[in-house]
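dumping this here before i forget
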Amino acid sequence: MASPRLVPFVFLLLIVGCSARALYPLPSRRNDGNKQPLQTFRAYNVAHRGSSGVLPEETIAAYIRAIEDGADFIEADILASKDGFLICFHDVILDTTTDVANHTLFARRKRTYEVEGINMTGFFQRKEYRDPQYNGMFSIITFEEYIQIALDAPRVVGIYPEIKNPVFINQRVQWPGGKKFEDVFVETLIKYGYKGTYLSEQWMKRPAFIQSFAPTSLTYLSKLTDLPKIFLIDDTTVLTQDTNQSYWEITSDKYLEYISEYVVGIGPWKNTIIPVANNYLQTPTDLVARAHARNLQVHPYTFRNEYPDLRFNFSQDPYKGYAFWINEVGVDRLFTDFPKSLHHYQQWTSPSQLEKRMHRACSIKS
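structure:
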C-alpha cells in the first residue's frame, strides 16, 4: 500500500492553534433534500478505507475517489492519538503505512505495548504490489474530516466507521470527565447529525453503520446511540480483545441470539464464511443462513481485484466473484478496496431507475 506522509506532531500543533496542514474544509451548504438519496434496493457498496486499491487508504484522496467511484458508504478505522484526537488509521503502530521509521527525530517515541494479547513494538507499504506513485503525498486525517467528506458529497453517501481497538485505546488515552473512547466517538457522530435506527427517516438523511470487533464496546455503544451496529468477526481461531472468546464461540447460535439484541448484522471475514485452500473456495459454512435466520445482515470483508485475493474458482474475474457472493451466498453488503468495480457490476446487473435513464439517454445520443 502506498504510504501517506506522517507528521506525528500535527495533532499536538492543532491543540495550540497552529496550522501544520490545511484541514478538509467544512461541508458546503448544499441542501441535503436536493441530493440523490441513498439507494436501498441492492447490496450496499462499502468502500473499504476509501478506494484503497487505487489510492493510499484512509486519506482524503481515497475517500473522495470512493464517492466518485460510486460507493454507497465510505468505511474508516477510527483510532485516537495519545492527546485524544480521533483519527482515521487502521493500525495501532505507525510503521506499516507511514514513513515514521525514516524520521530519526521520532525514534525516542518507539514503544512496546501489548495489543490483543501480543507484544508489538513500533511507533505506535501495506501491499507492495500496489501503485507506489502516491507515496509521501498524503497525511493522516481526523474523524471529523472524514465525516465532512461524506457530508460534502453531491449525493447522500453513508459513513461506516469502525471503533478500532477500543480496549487498547481506553487503556492508553484519557479524556476529561472520565469519558471513554466510545463516548467521544458517539459525541462526534451526534455533532454532525448522525442518529436514527436503520432505514428511519433520520438515518436516511445521514446514513451510518458503527462496527467493532469488540462485543462489549458494541453493547456499551447501544446505550449511547440508536444507529445500527455491525459486529465484526475474524478468523474463528482468533480471540476477541475484550471477552477473550474465540470467534468460533462468537458465531454459535447462542451467541448470535444474544448479540442480535444489540446489532443489526455481522461483518465476517469472508474466509470465515467460506474457507480457502490453495486459492480455491472450499465447502461453505452455514454462517450466513444462521445469521439471516436471526434477522442479522451479513457484511463480509474484504473484496479485492488483485491476484492474491482473487480465487481460482472465478478465473481471476472479480465480477464473477461479486455475482457468486451476492447471488449464491446471499450476503447483504460487501466491503471492497475497489468500489468502482463493484459499482460497475451493479449498474450492469441491477441498475437504478436513474442509471437506466442515463443509459437510455447515452444510447439515443450514440
